Amino acid sequence: MSSKLGNKIPKNIVDSLESSRTGREGSVIFLITTDPDGFPHIALLSPYQVIIEDESTIYFSLYKRSSSHDFLIRNKKFTLIIQDLPALLYLKCQIISFGNSLEEINDESHQFFKAKTTAVLMDVSDRAPLISELLFETKGIKDEYNSEFLGLSEFVKKLRE
After folding, report:
1. CATH superfamily of 2-160
2. Which of 40, 108, 143, 144 is the most buried (most CB within 10 A)?
3. Rounded alpha-carbon distances, angstroms, from residue 45 to 48, 100, 153
């Protein structure tokens, strides 16, 4: 059963996904949106697609032509599931609108988003803890991941100006 931690992301998660940390593991991050029929829709994000700025601000990128992108644009709410063994963290989030400046920053294949956490929950079992995490094999895609991370980092930098 999950327990509510409030609306702040734990420091160890902020530290592991902050923008200055370019060395990232292949840990899968789950993004859950809702499709038009009300069913959960799941996308797998790499840690190179997510930057956590502080205890409540998240930046991330999605492919523009994906279902996840379209559902997120429509609903503006989503949940990220982050593996923090032996637990999972559920970050319930709300997209923050940028107006016209968003189009100037996005590249041709990705859309970058900024969101705020509205609730953070932890799901852990003492009797049956998670003992391994789901990981991407990054050898064949490392350069593409690094390029996407640099684009997301530029997006964050421009928003801070």
Report:
1. Electron Transport, Fmn-binding Protein; Chain A (2.30.110.10)
2. 144
3. 8, 26, 16
